């Protein structure tokens, strides 16, 4: 029996990219104002989003789902690709071993669920169920699934 596939975005879902933007010394540079993901090294030392580690372990240990990280990396910052891969291994061990997908077209992947904080890069056109996670910085409000507790509730793994 094939397990349902859950794709999990990295930035803003597993890794606290928003905090990194606010605290990185180069984030105020005019050069990076509109593209902070092009700051060299910004993806190397991100903090984990609260509750992410515990939730990923619960999803993994349930043995009900096939988990993948589905993220986008800036084309003009190739070290970000390496930093993202290293970050995943550092914080989640072997859970995502050879299960990291980097693409700018999330809508092309076939899966059951996508946990993502944005609708960009094809996430809004994902063919499965998009669990809109976290904080919406544009509209200044929480998305439908504000935190990992809400995600675990959705998958009936809380408690």
From TrEMBL:
- Which Pfam families does the record match to this protein? NT5C (PF06941)
> Which spans of this chain does the record mark as coiled coil?
none
Which is an annotated GO molecular function term of this record?
5'-nucleotidase activity
| Lineage: superkingdom | Bacteria
Record GO biological process: pyrimidine deoxyribonucleotide catabolic process
InterPro entries the record matches: 5'(3')-deoxyribonucleotidase, HAD-like_sf, HAD_sf
Protein family according to the UniProt entry: Belongs to the 5'(3')-deoxyribonucleotidase family.
* Identification of the protein by name: 5'(3')-deoxyribonucleotidase
Species: Psychroflexus salis
Specify the taxonomic lineage: Bacteria, Pseudomonadati, Bacteroidota, Flavobacteriia, Flavobacteriales
């Amino acid at each position: 029996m094939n397990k349902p596939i859950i794709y999990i975005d990295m930035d803003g879902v597993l890794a606290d990219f928003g905090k990194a933007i606010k605290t990185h010394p180069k984030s105020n540079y005019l050069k990076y104002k509109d593209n902070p993901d092009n700051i060299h090294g910004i993806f190397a030392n991100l903090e984990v989003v609260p509750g992410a580690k515990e939730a990923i372990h619960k999803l993994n240990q349930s043995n009900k789902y096939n988990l993948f990280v589905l993220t986008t990396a800036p084309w003009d910052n190739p070290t970000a690709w390496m930093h993202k891969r290293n970050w995943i291994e550092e914080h989640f061990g072997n859970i995502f071993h050879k299960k990291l997908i980097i693409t700018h077209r999330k809508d092309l992947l076939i899966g059951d669920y996508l946990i993502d904080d944005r609708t960009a890069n094809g996430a809004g056109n994902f063919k499965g169920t998009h669990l809109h996670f976290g904080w919406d910085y544009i509209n200044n409000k929480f998305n439908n699934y504000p935190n990992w507790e809400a995600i675990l509730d959705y998958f009936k793994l809380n408690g």
